[in-house]
């Protein structure tokens, strides 16, 4: 049983179906954490967010919270309401707008994920220059470390994502995982084990897990599912966590963090007597 702290529904258009799929797959808790650029309230205040291609129709914060409430009412597991926001420090106006939006809405969210999707010159991770992986990872690493130091987020989203979408993975990427773990401890932020990245780049995600275990950094699990058929993908993570000696993961309520024991491996469940 795990808490899955990172999921979306604007792309598939059905929060209830996402929650039902998560419950059916065996999640103990689930959070819906839509991108900040899918909220009209944020788009109105932060024009730069309009440059990020939407995955579906934007909705007001009120409508978003209502949709998550409908999902919560449809299932027997807790469904948290969160947000995945952008770390965009290059433009002062954008950074200030994002910080102000977060400050004004903080009480609305169970969990705030801070993610780096853009590098220098607003280049998306998907579009980085394959010819200079070291340069891309230096930029990515500096942004991730700065996002940790900001202490603005509960979770640093997918700190391994550049390995999935951005070409060759240099040695620098592996050394970065230890730097992130150290910084996460110092600034009391959880690092995300992202199921998309775990599937595509297991070696680097295992490195993140082992460094976090060694340094004592808190880990948060996220499926990052955008459709019901990918819900609960984070259930693939506990095996790797147990191998590294990690026995608990983070869950969030009202912005407060608590630790949830991973419990015994799932295959033991099948030995239970049937009723
Ligand atoms: Zn993301
Ligand atoms: Zn996401």
Net shape = globular
Which sequence of strands runs across the widest sheet?
1-2-3-4-5-6-7
User: What is the CATH architecture assignment?
Assistant: Alpha-Beta Barrel
Proportion of beta-strand residues: 15-25%
Can you walk through the features of this model?
With 275 residues, this protein is α/β, with parallel strands linked by helices. Helix content is 40%, strand content 17%. It contains 10 helices and 9 strands. The chain has helices spanning 15-25, 40-45, 61-74, 92-105, 133-149, 161-165, 171-187, 195-200, 202-215, 237-243, and strands spanning 3-4, 29-35, 78-86, 111-115, 155-156, 190-194, 219-222, 248-253, 256-261. Strands 1-2-3-4-5-6-7 form a 7-stranded parallel beta sheet. Helix 5 (133-149) links the parallel strand 4 and strand 5 (155-156). Helix 1 runs parallel beside helix 3 (61-74). The model has no long low-confidence stretch (mean pLDDT 95). Bound molecules: zinc ion (ZN) (2 copies). The site of one zinc ion (ZN) has 4 residues, from loops.
Write a brief caption for the model.
The chain contains ten helices and nine strands. By secondary structure, the chain is α/β, with parallel strands linked by helices.
